[in-house]
Design brief:
single chain; mainly alpha; 0% strand; extended
Length: 405
Amino acid sequence: MKQLTSHEGLHCANCGAPMQGEFCHECGQSIHSVLRPMHGMIEETVETVLHIDGRIVHTLPPLLLKPGFLTLEYFSGRRVRYIAPFRLMFVLCVLSFFVFHLAINKIAAMIPTNGRPLVMMNTGSIDSAANPAEVRKALQDELDGLQSASEMGVLPQNVLDQIHLDTLKLRRRASQRLVELGAAPMSAASIAAPLPVVPVQSRDQANTGDATPDMPRRPVVEQEPQPVRIAWLPNTGNARLNELLQQIHKNWQTFMDGDPGASAEAKQRMINGVFGALPPAMFVLVPVFAVLLKLFYVFRRRLYMEHLIVALHSHAFLFLSLLLITVTGMLSTWLRPHAAWTGYALGLLQGALILWIPTYLLVMQKRIYRQGWPMTVLKFWCVGWCYLWLLAIALIVAAALGMAH
């Protein structure tokens, strides 16, 4: 049982007001001093962490499973046990885009650059070799190519790991081909030997023509885009627009026609730029979505702040769903080679999460605004149609700004 404490005769150290509790009713300062033993600081820290964790436990499950519950609780004044709407939306937005960025990076690493993969292993020359000397020459040519690719200095770690695996595969295949031709196989030490480590060239050296001679550079064709002028924009606006277009064109030309290193760097730069522009674009859409709700429910006599809270909780749910869908997809990719049934089960879970998103938002709109199903479905369709167009515009602008990074 909590012990009752009397604060009679005590005064606030900050403003001098008589204390009626642990916090001053005039300035809000706590009666407890910050000068305390170390064990007291540890106790306060543990209490704060457990309090935050408690709010997470009370907030995330209903956010995902109970449409409109958090919003109605907030309207009813029961807010202490839940995370504030803006903080909830902000944290989930940053976390979901961070995880989604990781997933996109893994996918982008396997996307061909300038029409060919960053790393490509070919055992055809080894298989077609007619004698042991040709096998050894073909193996050395393939290893030289992998060595040159590993020295570019811009490849992600998963591609470097793939180069190591390809090296082992090439040597095993060459050893098998030597046995087929009646020669002695390669030793286990030779097969497992890593590629020689060569100091990575700096990007300045690569750009001045000191690149590896085995990796011929493809010239980048500089074709400046035609300047664009919009009549209703001021001169500074048109100048900024043309600057962005030129940077987009430069990045795209480097990605398509540059050497593999520069192409990979341009691709990563554009991806990072897009993901850097997405969170601000989504923050702009939240108040715009609240305006749409205000317009379609103008006769419900609700304040704009109420619609804004609905928008914050709706977007928090969308970001949480995106986070779960992305994590589920990454787990499926990781577990499928070890247990195929997990990929099937996680695929079903992903599909269920995708279908749950529109269902959740429709039920949430019905519970909060308390209209009949026909009118709710009609307004849900109209609001969703308008919002999808706004979302498409925001994503296009974010993509353009990101590609101009």
